[in-house]
């Protein structure tokens, strides 16, 4: 064993930092695996090399951890409604590490300063800037990300879904956007519960109506009205998220995929490369004076089952699946050859694959039932 008290030559193996011997492309792979924007901010103050490499990361995750209270914002009137709350959440609710990230990733004040002094000064200014809570309000996700020049994959995670629902109720949605809504799938249930879990159980629908008809009670006890509220609320939540993403998409032309979700897994908005490019080319149409994208006229397909048993012992009561597409897209699809038309179980593969298990199984079971068609005007 080497003598701990002995001096070490700078050229000896013990003095070498093997991490420094890694080429930049390898370090970028490591940084991309980290992804989290706050962790990347901390990495950027480690050394000059990291400071130069972090802005080249192409896979970034932004987690919004908290909401800034109205007292800190200085607003005289609190915003009302879940969607006003969402706008404040995305534009104002970044935790303090995100607040400093834009400064940390900015140009160094002095090229002659050492790595350690740069790290120390960045940390000091990081703490000083946090002495004023009001400053946090000025750092949106768009500002936090502005120094990342090569982002290809971006995920933004809100702390919770904005649609308040009662305990035991299931409501999930998955929406795809370009410059407007392309599609949306909503899965809801009046109650979700567990029975004796059996991972090997076969999922079955235990309704007595094999034809899948909706019982008369569905229309009379307020169940249909509740599903309409779920549908409209989910569409408004999705269009509000989409509207708030415009600055980020405009500033990052390298983006190839974007996901905006929440920690509860309630709603997910996705955009691929073609959809992102469409938004850049065609301006988003706002819905009046509200901070959300205009929802076009829609065609909807609804499936319902009074009771569904799913793998793992999950039981859905009043399970409802709604598949939504713009009316124009539906009309175009109907002009395709019969084998390619949207209809039947095979034509709804995009619906049944919208969720992870066990809800993917639920969607797959529901699309086999009788389909009910509805229409909705633009709003």
Automatic annotation (TrEMBL):
Spans of biased composition, class Low complexity? 109-134
Q: Which residues form the F-box domain?
A: 16-64
- In Swiss-Prot or TrEMBL terms, this protein is called F-box protein At5g46170-like
Q: Which SUPFAM superfamilies match?
A: F-box domain (SSF81383)
Q: Which Pfam families match?
A: F-box-like
Stretches assigned to coiled coil: none
Annotated region described as Disordered, given as residue ranges: 107-137
InterPro entries the record matches: AUF1-like (IPR044809), F-box-like_dom_sf (IPR036047), F-box_dom (IPR001810)
